[in-house]
Amino acid sequence: MLEVEVKAHISDFKEIKDKLVEIGAVKQRTEHQEDIYFNAPHRDFAQTDEALRIRKIPRKEGYEIILTYKGAKLDKSSKTRQEIEVKIEDSQKTGLILENLGFNPVKTIKKDRIIYLLDEFIITLDKVWEVGNFVEIERDLNEGEDYQEILDKIFDTYRILGINEGFERRSYLELLELGRK
How many structural domains does the chain have? Predict the structure, then answer.
């Protein structure tokens, strides 16, 4: 599945929250996420622009845990890429399997996320620990849909929200690494 995604760095969520309500976005939930990123033994994901992570999201009944592979980005203006996700039962055992296969844990990214829905788009407000505040707008590309049309709608939504700059293609992991250098 292709995920069309654009994110932008912002300083404050207050105005964005107000605008989201104005344009009819519906708040779904707030959640904390912890993403453990791994690098491959046979190629450097930092060089190939890929990602492999285990995401843990606390829920009332325990944790929702998702193993995700993200392929290389497909263009220069967005974070559009192949994304494959599978729910798993045990993050520790999955991590041990990956490590025994030679995948090395690189970093853990923590974020607090507010999730909104606007038509077919997911809009998130992310407070990423040690990195900053971001707005992400994304949507899966359905078969037969025009990728550029979806991307244009995402940028139109950013303009409606008053966001015209601060767009960022680098991952939160890359930004965290950059901040530590």
Answer: 1
Distance CA 148, CA 156 (A): 12
Nearest Cα to Cα of residue 173 among 104, 109, 98, 127: 109
- Catalytic site residue from 37, 116, 158, 172: 37
Q: What angle do CA 48, 33, 106 make, to 5 degrees?
A: 40
The total of other beta-carbon atoms located within 10 Å of residue 10's CB is 19
Strand 81-88 and strand 26-39: pairing? unpaired
Query: Where residue 147 sits, what CATH number does that domain have?
Result: 2.40.320.10
Q: What is the pLDDT of residues 89-120, one digit of tens each?
A: 999 999 999 999 999 999 999 999 999 999 99
Cα–Cα distances (Å) from 14 to 29, 45, 142, in that order, read 17, 35, 32
Q: Identify the sign of the CA torsion 134, 79, 45, 57.
A: positive
| Structural domain harbouring 162 | 2-179
Give 177's pLDDT tier (boundaries 50, 70, 90).
confident
pLDDT digits (tens, 9 = 90+) for 15-70: 999 999 999 999 999 999 999 999 999 999 999 999 999 999 999 999 999 999 99
Q: What is the DSSP letter of 151?
A: H
Is 63 marked active-site? no
Q: Can you tell me whether residue 104 is helix, strand or coil?
A: strand
